[in-house]
Design a protein that fits this description.
It is found in: Cell membrane; Membrane. Belongs to the ABC-3 integral membrane protein family. By secondary structure, the protein is mostly helical. It has a single domain, classed as ABC transporter involved in vitamin B12 uptake, BtuC. The chain is built from 14 helices and no strands.
Length: 320
């Protein structure tokens, strides 16, 4: 372990793994709630065009991929919000076109070589340069600030857009913001996990945490913690085994999901038995029983420890 930390590139890789482990599940939990688990995979295809443009213009592929991914995410959200029946076809053209264009641009660039695109597709701990780490840190901080700071608003649009719109929240703005954060997360994670596997790190820790947690806040915290653990373990394992970091991280995450799935079944039965043994919870308001006289204080139609002030119309509504 000490020998591994003595290398500068491993220090950068581990720091990048921590940032990716936090940001990917932080965004992924909203995509899982919206049943858009494969959105990250599509964004990964679009990001390949940004990587190719970075090679062509000899600029940072990370920042170029951010620009292209954000444009792709906005396009995806506009197509989705319109509810066009041909929207799936348009998105498929966007995803496949992004992948093909990226490969073509990389092959035409002067920087193209063996493994130049492989490191972006599958992740590589050797390719995390200091400027890449700085970009990952800045972008990761933005993603974390938005996904945690606007947790209530983003959760609301993931559950019911119509109700959220009635409450006065800017639904379209929040949808676009979430899509942009997903695009930024893809570019943040492509150095460590790879464009082809980034969607797995956004989804698998979330569904693994859902096996044991019972609230949104607990699931978000547990999935972020799990993302950090598997990212660090995957990068460490890839160093010792000389394998790409992306597949190592994803396989570890899937293994944790399998273990949690086995644990979840007996845990759910234990919770069920505990709830059955404790008996039904006492209700604050007693519904009127047959034969009770409305308007009079009695054990059947009174509040706990107080006089009954409920009108007959209100009792009828409660009974229904």
């Amino acid at each position: 372990m000490t020998e591994m930390l003595s290398y500068d590139f491993m220090q950068r890789a581990l720091l990048a793994a921590v940032l990716v482990g936090i940001t990917a599940p932080a965004v992924g939990i909203y995509l899982v709630q919206r049943r858009q688990a494969l959105m990250g995979d599509g964004m990964g295809h679009v990001a390949m065009t940004g990587v190719g443009l970075g090679f062509i213009f000899q600029t940072s592929p990370v920042w170029m991929a951010v620009l292209v991914c954000v444009l792709g995410a906005v396009t995806m959200e506009l197509v989705r919000s319109r509810g066009n029946q041909r929207g799936d076809i348009a998105l498929a053209m966007l995803f496949y076109g992004g992948m093909a264009c990226g490969k073509l641009l990389v092959s035409l660039s002067a920087q193209a070589g063996a493994g130049s695109l492989e490191s972006y597709l599958w992740g590589s701990i050797l390719t995390v340069a200091p400027e890449d780490l700085a970009a990952i840190a800045v972008l990761g901080a933005v993603v974390i600030a938005v996904t945690v700071g606007l947790r209530r608003q983003l959760f609301a649009i993931c559950q019911d857009e119509d109700f959220t719109r009635v409450t006065g929240l800017p639904v379209r703005t929040l949808n676009l913001l979430l899509a942009v954060m997903a695009a930024v997360t893809v570019t943040v994670a492509m150095r460590v996990v790879g464009l082809l596997l980034v969607s797995a790190l956004m989804v698998v820790p979330v569904v693994a945490a859902q096996q044991l947690t019972r609230s949104f806040a607990a699931t978000q915290a547990a999935s972020i913690a799990l993302g950090v653990v598997v990212s660090l373990a995957g990068v460490t394992g890839s160093y010792h085994l000389d394998v790409p970091s992306g597949p190592a991280i994803v396989l570890l995450a899937i293994g944790v999901f399998a273990v949690f799935s086995v644990i979840a079944a007996p845990l759910a039965r234990r919770r069920h038995r505990a709830g059955a043994d404790s008996g039904p919870r006492e209700c604050d308001v007693q519904l009127p029983t047959q034969g009770s006289v409305p308007g009079r204080n009695s054990p059947q139609n009174s509040l706990q420890g107080s006089s009954d002030t409920t009108t007959p119309e209100r009792r009828a509504g409660l009974a229904q």
